[in-house]
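Quick one, C-alpha cells below:
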C-alpha cells in the first residue's frame, strides 16, 4: 500500500475496533464519537484505499476479507505508533515530570518505547494515574553519571561488567554482530575473521563511552589487541546502521538492532571467531539493594520480563 492510500491512525483504530466489537456503533462508542461520524470516516477510508473494508448488515458490521488483512497490518502499525508516542512524550521533557529515565542509545531506540507503554498500561490497570516520564538518551557512561548525581531516577546501560558506584540488575542479554553493506567484498568472505583481522578493520563506530564500543574493546583486549582508529564515529546505533547500509565501513551492532535489515537483505552478517561479544543490559539506580518502590520498580520489573525474548 503506497503512502497516498494509507488512512490516518484514527481511521485505522476504527477498523481494528470493528474487528474486536463486531459493530460500527460499539466501535464508535469506544472511540467517543458518534456512529454517523464513524460511518463517514470508514467510507472515506474505503474511498482512499479503493477497497471495500466493512460489510454492513442488519445484525451488525463485519470486515471483508480485505478489511481483515488491512486491520491485521493496522494493528501492528498502531502498536508501533503508541510506542513512539510514549517515547516522544518522554523526550519532550521536564514539565511536571515524575520519573526521569536515562538510557543508552541502543536501549532507548530499541527497547524502552515498549517498556514505557507497558508501564503506562500497568499503572492504568491498577487504577493509578500514569507517571509523567522524562527520557534522556545518552551513552552508557553518561547514564551512570546521571544516576549517581541524581539527575536520573533510574538508568539503563549496556556493557560487559556491572558499573560501579550504583546498584544494578541485569534485565536482558545481548550480543554484537559484525555487519556490512549487502554485497560488499567483506560480505562475500567464506571464512570467519580472526581477532587480529577484526582489530585491523576501519569500522563505522560508536563514540568513546558507548557500551557497544566497550564490548568490542574488551573482547579484543583479551587477545592483547586494540582496534585501529575507526573510519567514522557516530553517536547513535541508528546512525551507524544507516551509514553501513549506505556503504560506510562495517560495524559491530546489537543483533536486535539489525535483525530486520539482515532479514530484508540490506545488511549482511560477517562471521567472527574467538571473540566474546556478549553483553548485558542493566537497570541502574542508587540507594537500597532493590529498586525504589513505585514507577521505578515497576519499570525495572517490566524490563526484566518483556525483553527476555
Amino acid at each position: 500500500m503506497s503512502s497516498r492510500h494509507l488512512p490516518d491512525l484514527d481511521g485505522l483504530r476504527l477498523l481494528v475496533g470493528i474487528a474486536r466489537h463486531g459493530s460500527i456503533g460499539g466501535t464508535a462508542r469506544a472511540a467517543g464519537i458518534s456512529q454517523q461520524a464513524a460511518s463517514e470516516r470508514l467510507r472515506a477510508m474505503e474511498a482512499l484505499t479503493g477497497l471495500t473494508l466493512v460489510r454492513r448488515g442488519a445484525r451488525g458490521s463485519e470486515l471483508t476479507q480485505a478489511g481483515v488483512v488491512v486491520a491485521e497490518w493496522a494493528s501492528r502499525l498502531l502498536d508501533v505508533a503508541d510506542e513512539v508516542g510514549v517515547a516522544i512524550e518522554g523526550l519532550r521533557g521536564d514539565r511536571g515530570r515524575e520519573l526521569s529515565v536515562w538510557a543508552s542509545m541502543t536501549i532507548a531506540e530499541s527497547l524502552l518505547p515498549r517498556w514505557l507503554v507497558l508501564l503506562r498500561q500497568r499503572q492504568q490497570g491498577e487504577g493509578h494515574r500514569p507517571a509523567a516520564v522524562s527520557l534522556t538518551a545518552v551513552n552508557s557512561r553518561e547514564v551512570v553519571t546521571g544516576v549517581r548525581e541524581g539527575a536520573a531516577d533510574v538508568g539503563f546501560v549496556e556493557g560487559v561488567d556491572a558499573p560501579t558506584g550504583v546498584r544494578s540488575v541485569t534485565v536482558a542479554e545481548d550480543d554484537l554482530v559484525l555487519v556490512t553493506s549487502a554485497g560488499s567484498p567483506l560480505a562475500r568472505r567464506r571464512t570467519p575473521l580472526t581477532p587480529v583481522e577484526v582489530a585491523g578493520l576501519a569500522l563505522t563506530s560508536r563514540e568513546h563511552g558507548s557500551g557497544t564500543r566497550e564490548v568490542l574493546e574488551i573482547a579484543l583486549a583479551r587477545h592483547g589487541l586494540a582496534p585501529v582508529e575507526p573510519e567514522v564515529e557516530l553517536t547513535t546505533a541508528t546512525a551507524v546502521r544507516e551509514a553501513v547500509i549506505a556503504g560506510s565501513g562495517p560495524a559491530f551492532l546489537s543483533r536486535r538492532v539489525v535483525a530486520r535489515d539482515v532479514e530484508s537483505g540490506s545488511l549482511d552478517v560477517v562471521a567472527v571467531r574467538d571473540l566474546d561479544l556478549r553483553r548485558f543490559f542493566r537497570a541502574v539506580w542508587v540507594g537500597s539493594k532493590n529498586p525504589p518502590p513505585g514507577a521505578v520498580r515497576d519499570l525495572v520489573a517490566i524490563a526484566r520480563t518483556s525483553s527476555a525474548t
